[in-house]
Amino acid sequence: MNELTVYHFMPDKLNLYSDIGNIIALRQRAKMRDIKLNVVDINETEGVTFDQCDIFFIGGGSDREQALATKELSKIKTTLKEVIEDGMPGLTICGGYQFLGSKYITPDGTELEGLNILDFYTESQKDRLTGDIVIESDTFGTIVGFENHGGRTYHPYGTLGNVTHGYGNNDEDAKEGIHYKNLLGTYLHGPILPKNHEVTDYLLEKACERKGIPFTPKQVNNTEEEAAKQVIVNRVTQK
Ligand code: GLN
């Protein structure tokens, strides 16, 4: 049986609003393709290499937990940047997304250093951007989720798509997340993957491509995933 391995970074600190559900969705969608998904939890990064890793995942957390997690992740930031540049698929959520940039400015003006892997920053405000969110994406179609963040992120890179309901990266440009090579960063909790099988399959397919294993069949039954997505779409459009 073919296998893929996910490195799940800092699950002890970054697991807001059931971010762990993303791992469950990856495992389930891999199983539909007869691929076994191994998950390695990494809370201490000293000496970690990505030799066995096919996909990496970093969840979200409060400002405090984010700062602690970033300190730990900074030990491997050079390697993490290299694998991202090399096209390793990865998913980072909210706090995990914010800290890929150069800095995070808290609502009281304190500057917390980011991993500086990509050239962007996040500035937080006291009023939070919260609620259901719907995005239209050229790559993934309709994406739904739940957001709750004080941070406003600004960057020049590709995004997941245009926000039709909710906020996304900030409360100005109606764009959500980041899409750089095969790295996805997003404010969507909820968790994002169970309701958005296109995103889950994207990560798995890119991992299979890199590893040289098949990702078939292309057609699987998505009835339940589509129904879950529709609940959110209906909720925001009926408001
Ligand atoms: N601390 C960050 C913010 O509020 C991230 C929160 C989160 O991960 N949900 O912007």
UniProtKB/TrEMBL annotation:
InterPro entries: Class_I_gatase-like, CobQ_GATase1, GATase_3, Lipid_II_synth_GatD. Substrate binds at R128. The active site is at C94 (nucleophile), H189. It holds the Pfam family GATase_3. It comes from the Bacteria. SUPFAM superfamilies: Class I glutamine amidotransferase-like. Its EC number is 6.3.5.13, 3.5.1.2. Residues 6-196 form the CobB/CobQ-like glutamine amidotransferase domain. It catalyses: beta-D-GlcNAc-(1->4)-Mur2Ac(oyl-L-Ala-gamma-D-Glu-L-Lys-D-Ala-D-Ala)-di-trans,octa-cis-undecaprenyl diphosphate + L-glutamine + ATP + H2O = beta-D-GlcNAc-(1->4)-Mur2Ac(oyl-L-Ala-D-isoglutaminyl-L-Lys-D-Ala-D-Ala)-di-trans,octa-cis-undecaprenyl diphosphate + L-glutamate + ADP + phosphate + H(+); L-glutamine + H2O = L-glutamate + NH4(+). GO terms for biological process: cell wall organization; cobalamin biosynthetic process; peptidoglycan biosynthetic process; regulation of cell shape. GO terms for molecular function: carbon-nitrogen ligase activity on lipid II; glutaminase activity. Pathway: Cell wall biogenesis; peptidoglycan biosynthesis. CDD domains: GATase1_CobQ (cd01750). Keywords: Cell shape, Cell wall biogenesis/degradation, Glutamine amidotransferase, Hydrolase, Ligase, Peptidoglycan synthesis. Forms a heterodimer with MurT. Belongs to the CobB/CobQ family. GatD subfamily. The lipid II isoglutaminyl synthase complex catalyzes the formation of alpha-D-isoglutamine in the cell wall lipid II stem peptide. The GatD subunit catalyzes the hydrolysis of glutamine to glutamate and ammonia. The resulting ammonia molecule is channeled to the active site of MurT. This is Lipid II isoglutaminyl synthase (glutamine-hydrolyzing) subunit GatD.
